[in-house]
Here is the input.
Amino acid sequence: MKKVLSIALAVAMSLTLLAGCGSTPASTPASTAGGESTPAAEGGDYAGQTLKVAAIETAYGADMWKEVAAAFEAHTGATVELTTDKNLEDVIDPQMKAGNFYDVVHLAAGREKALPETLLKENAVEDVTDVLSMQVLGEDVTVGDKIIPGFTGNLTTNPYGDDKVYMMPMFYGPCGLFYNKANFTEGGGELELPTTWDEFFALADQTDIPLFTYPVAGYLDAFTYAMIAEVGGQDFFNKALQYDEEVWNSAEMDQMFEVLGKLAENTNPATPSYANNDNFTKNQQMILDNEALFMPNGNWVIGEMADAPRAENFEWGFMALPAMEEGGDRYSYTFFEQCWIPAGAENKDLAKLFISFLYSDEAANIFAASGAVQPITGMTDKLSDDNKVYYSVYDNGAKAAIGTFATTTPVEGVNIKEDVCFTMDSVVNGTKTVDDWKTAVRNSCAALRAALQ
Here is the structure.
């Protein structure tokens, strides 16, 4: 797996989706004992201090955050006031607007409500570049030395395109196409796995199963990022994320939209009606019931659908996107979540110490026990064989794409993710055309290009 990551991240030195649906906030102290000071000296210097931490609850669950909070308390003597929720934005955004800031927030960019992106546009996220040079709490190594190269220095962690880090990389996983192995020769079926998009669409003549579904259109962000890299390569991909006019008006982008249009034609027609936070698992169920052949997703889907019924002999399969042409590059987008500090936080020093602890072996092992893998050297060696199947996608020749659209000053009425991803619902429904789609994206890119900071 070390080979996997060195290959994947070497490709991705330049430059992620989403999480669960609804719940109730849990705001509780974890436990208290012990002590430590920054950078790494035990001593209880933080006894009596309270750190407010908010973390999105995804398929990994909330218990791992409670364990990590308790471990941090045991090292520092501080009290961690922990809030977890599946719709974390709804809990913390009103509080922060009222001036009640959290000290540490674990919430990824790329979600529909785009809270981190909004705060970044408003310069309301703290610079955490110095955390990379901090000693990991309880260890004799710096945070930067533990993070796999390529997971900082991209447009997700360094959203203003400079050398300053505002978003620390957390749990990651390759994103690609999931399918039922039993339908293909590798699992005893009759269909051949496609290696190109031509082979992919040729499957429509070989089976009555619709070729495609997606949980919600927002999941197409990782999918389209990988396609951008496939049609134009790494430099093209980097420029696209900065709204480059020539790139977005190129023949290569026309090719991408042509493929997306064909996908819309071959998508299970029920998909858009279920593509929301309440019903997205019904689209995921299509793969288990052989009502769609392929679905873009991340490896968390395995846990989300663990107890769902499934077709006889069902077995999860996973692959990178098919290449644009025979012998062409295949890409798998590497999604990773992020942890950050609001600029209005009151306990920034303690917050940075907490973030350093998140990269400790102690914390990483707690997270990994719930299936949450951090970009820490050596972590993939500790994964189960099932999870290694998905993390080994880069061993099978796929290249990695890392990054998100560049942060700009706010532009009223412009939402690039809405245009790039959610337009798919309208194209599948037939209320918009692929040309409408291209025009909307190009107009938004022009507006955002002018607003780049």
Observations:
- Residues 93 and 115 are 8 Å apart (CA to CA).
- The longest helix spans residues 434-450.
- The chain is about 35% helix and 10% strand.
